[in-house]
């Protein structure tokens, strides 16, 4: 299935409203992960990027990329959507970095060219993992790391489409998640835990950690309504994979 045209269309359509709603949260401080804006310094997922060659896979408006450039990384941001890339270009300050339009499924970069490939609900949520993970592994140099977060299968399986909220009831089959229908024919992707392990190991990556970020009970989910409000404190809403290419 080729979800590139529909996903590009969706992100072009929603970019402006999405940035209006979420940029204040995403860009409130450097290095905030996921739906609960958990600081990387609490999770220790990314490490020191000074002098590293970094690819952000699905960089959106570049809140992460800009922050890492300011820390001394040599960053490239790739995204499918020209509207999202335009938002990144507008937001770029003195810390400049190249933006590339392209898909996580077909990365336009040479083998072994990055020390770190990462995303925060980016290309690995919006491209088929069995295509995007091998591409990320290909462009990593030996010793380089792939670090990314996605929604957890728990979160997806408990999401009630009709009520538009995450619940405490299983709404969907765990084994049937795979593709998730988004607005206007767009598609996001989710694997089982075993599926992620197989796709990461199958691409030759070593899994160093699977971080399950846990927000405080009072921290709101900035993207989805949850019932109860402290859902993410009680169950894992996100998976943050930390891997490297041996
Ligand atoms: C939720 S945003 C992630 C960016 C940023 N971290 C954020 O939270 O806003 C998802 C991004 O993935 C991009 N995207 C969607 N499909 C993609 C694909 N196949 N390859 C690369 N980027 C893609 C979208 O255009 C969008 O900018």
Automatic annotation (TrEMBL):
InterPro entries xref list: Methyltransf_11, Methyltransf_Superfamily, SAM-dependent_MTases_sf
EC number: 2.1.1.163
Domain of life, source organism: Bacteria
Pfam families: Methyltransf_11 (PF08241)
Organism: Streptomyces smaragdinus
CDD domains referenced in this protein's UniProt entry, alphabetically: AdoMet_MTases
Start and end residues of each Methyltransferase type domain: 55-148
PANTHER family: METHYLTRANSFERASE (PTHR42912), N6-ADENOSINE-METHYLTRANSFERASE TMT1A (PTHR42912:SF93)
GO BP terms, alphabetized: methylation
UniProtKB keywords: Methyltransferase, Transferase, Ubiquinone
Name of the protein this chain belongs to: Ubiquinone/menaquinone biosynthesis C-methyltransferase UbiE
A single MF term (Gene Ontology): demethylmenaquinone methyltransferase activity
Upper lineage: Bacteria, Bacillati, Actinomycetota, Actinomycetes, Kitasatosporales
